[in-house]
Amino acid sequence: MASPAHDPGPALDQDGVRLTVDDAIATVTLTNPAKRNAQSPALWRALAEAGRLLPGSVRVVVLRAEGRSFSAGLDRQAFTPEGFDGEPSFIDLARGGDAELDATIAEYQDAFTWWRRGDLVSVAAVQGHAIGAGFQLALACDLRVVADDVQFAMRETSLGLVPDLTGTHPLVSLIGYARALEICATGRFVTAEEAVNTGLANVAVPADQLDGTVHDLVSAILAAPRDAVVETKALLQGAQNRDYEAQRAAERAAQGRRLRDLAGLGE
Q: Is the pTM of this model over 0.85?
């Protein structure tokens, strides 16, 4: 009798983040449902480490969360004088120099930047509340599939802060300046219907269909050749910064590379 296949277990499981890898698919799961997956610097470091640990075989990364909420945003402990154990409090950071503060925020942002890497497609599966840092984490991904109970909100402004975890660029790109400003300035909730209608989400489904819908989307992405998806993603990511003629030229160059590869003439 053949022995059962060895399950290597998670590649990372710490500070509210678990990474598992199954060949071409990596899954990053937020694992602190008791606190509605509230975020902290330790969690951000774990998310950044998950990105560094991805093997070259991975083509799609799924971001999901345990429990009823995707993420309630920044853990309010950050605003207390004592902050988090072993971490400088936000009050301590405010008292530091500009360079130190800038470097610290840049380190926090590392958890949110790798999801748009050119060699990957990232898909966020979002249910319940996705507030503040939670909203920005969902925005960090290429695609968003949401449950019909989702509630997005950017609450930083109501706390006297600004969204600083890389969420402003994708938000404006997806829904435009005026609507992005209104959502951020008011801190109001964005429901699943509005998210789909405005382009924040690709599709909304009943909560019990969220995992199955994400699975079907990932399977469809993996059905296409990897290099074609990578080239297409690069074309689309660069389109906003090119004029029409430059985009035409980029299309021609990319197609030339694909045709040469298909003909076995690639470098």
A: yes
